[in-house]
Amino acid sequence: MDPVPALEEPLKKVLGPATAKVMAEHLGLDTVGDLLHHYPRRYEERGQLTHLADLPMDEHVTVVAQVADARLHTFASAKAPRGKGQRLEVTITDGSGRLRLVFFGAGVHKPHKELLPGTRALFAGKVSVFNRRLQLAHPAYELLRGDTEETVETWAGALIPIYPATAKLESWKIGKALQTVLPSAQEAVDPLPESLRAGRGLVALPEALLKIHRPQTKADIDDARARLKWDEAFVLQVALARRRHADAQLPAVARRPKPDGLLAAFDDRLPFTLTEGQRKVSAEIFTDLATEHPMHRLLQGEVGSGKTLVALRAMLAVVDAGGQAAMLAPTEVLAQQHHRSVTEMMGELAGGGMLGGADDATKVVLLTGSMGAAARRHALLDLVTGEAGVVIGTHALIEDKVQFHDLGLVVVDEQHRFGVEQRDALRGKGKQPPHLLVMTATPIPRTVAMTVFGDLETSVLDQLPAGRSPIASHVVPAADKPHFLARAWERVREEVSNGHQAYVVCPRIGDEEDGPKAAAKKKSAEDEAEKRPPLAVLDIADQLAKGPLRGLGVEVLHGRMQPDDKDAVMRRFAAGEIDVLVATTVIEVGVNVPNATAMVIMDADRFGVSQLHQLRGRVGRGSAPGLCLLVTEMPEASAARQRLNAVASTLDGFELSRIDLEQRREGDVLGQAQSGTRSSLRMLAVIDDEEIIAEAREEAARIVAADPDLADLPALRTALDALLDEEREQYLEKG
Hints:
Layout: H1 5-8, H2 11-15, H3 17-27, H4 32-36, E1 42-45, E2 60-75, E3 85-93, E4 98-104, H5 109-114, E5 120-130, E6 133-137, E7 140-143, H6 152-157, E8 159-162, H7 171-181, H8 194-199, H9 205-213, H10 218-249, H11 262-269, H12 276-289, E9 296-301, H13 307-320, E10 324-328, H14 332-346, E11 363-367, H15 373-385, E12 388-393, E13 407-413, H16 420-427, E14 435-440, H17 446-452, E15 457-461, E16 471-477, H18 482-497, E17 501-505, H19 515-520, H20 528-531, H21 537-546, E18 554-557, H22 563-574, E19 580-583, E20 596-601, H23 609-616, E21 626-632, H24 639-649, H25 653-664, H26 672-675, H27 690-706, H28 714-723, H29 726-734
Parallel strand pairs: 4-6, 9-14, 9-15, 10-12, 10-13, 11-12, 13-14, 16-21, 17-19, 17-20, 18-19, 20-21
Antiparallel strand pairs: 1-8, 2-3, 2-5, 3-4, 5-6, 5-7
Helix pairs in contact: 9-10, 10-27, 10-28, 11-13, 12-13, 17-27
């Protein structure tokens, strides 16, 4: 028997099929429980009006205001040639500003009767500009009439919940639907153990749901939020704590390097000393590798902090101990690049079984999908016999045909690009679960790491190796100041004339048949810059070669080229034979050409903050300083420009990832990036609620250690099952 039938009730039974359909399609709400957890975004006080003075353009808003005046105009138009057209203009005010509402045609009759001067109402619509004035065209509205028994004071002080709404469903309609289902809140099963709830002074769940949707006072809202944030943090941390607990029970082979083996020989031939950060992180990894349950460690670090070197040392330690190590890269370009840099760093130590190979040497094998049959056969044979200690590849490593002699360590580069199933398939290749090291070059704020990667221990590399150069970043406002863009191309020519090279990055390839059409669908125009299709590699390369960069060696690189062609272009660029490489984001990760000093990113506003930081990390990798120019046509006041200014103002990836997250909110916490489901975090803000997350993690660890199966906490189990529908369960299982 399901313990929460009332909350499982489909909305179409309770609200009718039409409303339920809109809620399901536009808000992802299917059951009574879903709707109860659709929390108000903010609250309006009837007596305290919103500021019309700072309305955002092009957004759906809900305002509480009073009608100042209403005028009906007649006009002639194509549809009403005899001057019979009607337009109602209503001016509303809230003391801070005024806003015009317009209604046309048959739509004028009802508001003309109802919106009389002095009337107060909730208005909802999309803010637009007409004749340089803000307006709402045909807004939906709800009159605010105090019932006779309500005193004026309580009416003016009542808190009106404003819900995240859509054009199809206004906030007050959602409010009315909630009124219908609110009695079911009494049946909500409380997932928090009573001792924890009482110890932290949190209200019960049914009470929290009533207070969030129908608060009498601001204190009610605070009580409800405090409780609902704890729910989200705690249930998620319990899921992660159970993951960690289960992993700790798995057997693994302890891998300890020999004192005078391959790792020692490799360290001896390094032409530089490790940074203190690299030594510290390596020590953490070696401690994990020496235990008899699988390491699960996240290695995150700034672009260029030497993560690959740390990972390679871990791989060599495992080879020393008789095992094999596999590195999984997200693209062929990157796999080939890693293979090249690893064999170069190892020198004769990578020549196992070959003439001239050192005594301790092992074989380093590359395995990608586009390899010829003979080369592939050789590589597979080296893996199954154990001849190859180190293998680097793309997801071709995961195929069923690939067998390892004794897989001891899996290193996953750029975690966010790999589906969970792929990582899991590779981990299944070991006789016992191999150790796992996940690398990411997008620094993750500590709270996010605790929430998203809560089942991984985290190591952070935040020092740059000696000899790395600073990167100067500037925003180039191409629309406001076209001469800035001309200067950008002059700077590229100057870098090339000084013997250096440059990247130009574009969001699109340019050979897509449906490119412009797909782009044209995007309606959220901040201005014309948003409406045109994104700039494309093939177009820009052509314009540059014929125009501002005439006479320089300009070539292109993008994801739809043949793998051999891509590799050839990268090799020639690395060898200095190409001056300017015009590319898509295929160069975002791991590409290492120390002589490339300048990067121009076209339509920079189309990229995320972390992505821009990643791209920028491709320059300044040698001794000459780097330059990154962010070209945009966005107006100065736009959010996109503020984002670019933030990127230009700091090289601190952790700071940028905070900014990025604050702007995007937590849409992809809990693996939505992989599973496509909505965020389970509706109340918890990962950046702001650091304390709650840390405390919830401690409580969860304590409870799971005492009762791993949650046998004594059936309500918590139910909440966990609801959070971890199958997809999310798999996501955590395989994380």
